[in-house]
Amino acid sequence: MSELHKFIFDGLPVRGQLVRLTDAWQDLLRRRAANTQTGPHAPPVAELLGEMSAAAVLMQGNIKFDGALILQIAGDGPVKVAVAEVQSDLRLRATASVIGAVAPGARLADLVNAHGKGRCAVTLDARQRQSGQQPYQGVVPLVDERGAPLGSLAGVIEHYMRQSEQLDTTLVLASDEQVAAGLLLQRLPVQGQTNLSQSNVAREDDDGPEDDYRRLSILTRSLKREELLGLDADTILRRLFWQDKLLRLPPLAGSQGPRFACSCSRERMAAMLRGLGQQEAESVLAEQGRIEVGCDFCGQQEQFDAVDVARLFTPVEKQPPQPGSVQ
Ligand SMILES: [Zn+2]
Questions:
Q1: How close is the Cα of 322 to the center of ligand 1, in Å?
Q2: Are 104 and 86 in contact (CB under 8 A)?
Q3: What is the Å distance from ligand 1's center to 263 Cα?
Q4: Beta-strand pair 246-248/67-74
Q5: How far is the centre of ligand 1, averaged over its atoms, from the C-alpha of 95 (Å)?
Q6: Class of CATH domain 266-318
Q7: CA of 265 to the centre of ligand 1 (A)
């Protein structure tokens, strides 16, 4: 079961979250793989999307916000756009559009930053947005402060957090075909100090909370990919932070936890076909015998045959009763 764990370090201004997406991630991959038009994501693209999904859950888990957090990379390599979207109740979906070949073992820079023009954007789209109100969006390039390309998505998000939230953040991400996971550590604001200036001061000061954050950050970075993917949350937290006392919130799992969900439905696809017009729909039907509609986001496909299409364009009151319908 997919889970999100939140914790703070007792007595230290440091908080953390650990996410493990299992069924949610597998559902997402399975739906895409079943799409007869696209087939499965190439493994490097799937790995990027898994990391983005885990990161987006952690970022959503970090804020008090009613709406969608959308983590998006506009790429200038074969991946044109990669998106992970997480609602405040942790429903999630993710997709990528790819043009051209993806080399086996392609890395982040090959996928999305081939010419140094890739961008990572984080959008907060409030559920109840006033008309005319724009969603908040923060954008960072896929390079660090010195212009050097960032080699990992985790590095990109850390960079974004430093810029947007002014909070030191340590992030480790990993994904394979079964699991997408991430561990995030963040320094909490200490009254009267800004975090970034604090971190500069504290490099010369080896006592106090500053040093604790650095120590915990180093421990977090020592987590190996196989451990993050293969071990359960309790084991990971115990192994890494056995010297510290963690105050843990009840894990968010099941119907409260991260889970795959897409807003597409057969009804929405039917409405789209109605929008296409009867003539157009019937010409596709004549050519192909049926109409196949797919969701761009998750890959779900629905088929509409001649009877379905006739029904779409028949006013409801003229339709024959459905079998089993109450008369
Ligand atoms: Zn969908």
A1: 26
A2: no
A3: 6
A4: unpaired
A5: 10
A6: alpha beta
A7: 7
Sign of the CA dihedral with 88 first, then 2, 40, and 71 last: positive
Q: What's the whole-number mean pLDDT along residues 280-306?
A: 91
Instruction: Output the pLDDT for position 322.
Output: 63
Q: Is the pLDDT of residue 274 over 50?
A: yes
Query: If pLDDT is split at 50, 70 and 90, which confidence band does 141 have?
Result: confident
Phi, psi angle pair for 26, to nearest 5°: -65, -40
pLDDT at res. 204: 44
54 vs 4: CA distance, rounded Å = 10
Provide the residue ranges of all domains of the chain, joining segments of one domain with +: 3-260, 266-318
Cα(187)–Cα(209) distance, integer angstroms: 9
Per-residue 3-state assignment (H helix, E strand, C coil) for 133-148: CCCEEEEEECECCCCC
- Give the DSSP letter string of 258-284: -EE--S--HHHHHHHHHHH-HHHHHHH
Contacts 24+ apart (CB under 8 A), 204-213: 209/12, 209/13, 209/14, 212/9, 212/12, 212/14, 213/12, 213/13, 213/14, 213/168, 213/185, 213/187
Backbone φ and ψ of 295, nearest 5° = -80, 125
Mean pLDDT, range 57-78, rounded to an integer: 94
Common-topology check for domains 3-260 and 266-318: no
Confidence of residue 66 (pLDDT cuts 50, 70, 90): very high
Ligand 1 centroid to 297 CA: how many Å? 5
pLDDT averaged over every residue in the chain: 89
Cβ(110)–Cβ(103) under 8 Å?
yes
Task: Tell me the pLDDT tens digit for each residue of 75-134.
Answer: 889 999 999 999 999 999 999 999 989 999 999 999 998 888 899 999 999 988 877 888
Residues 282-291 have a mean pLDDT of 92
pTM of the model: 0.88
Q: Provide the b/e sequence for 267-286 (b: ≥16 CB within 10 Å).
A: eebbeebeeeeeeebeebbe
Q: What is the CATH number of domain 3-260?
A: 3.55.30.10
Distance 266 CA to ligand 1 centre (A): 10
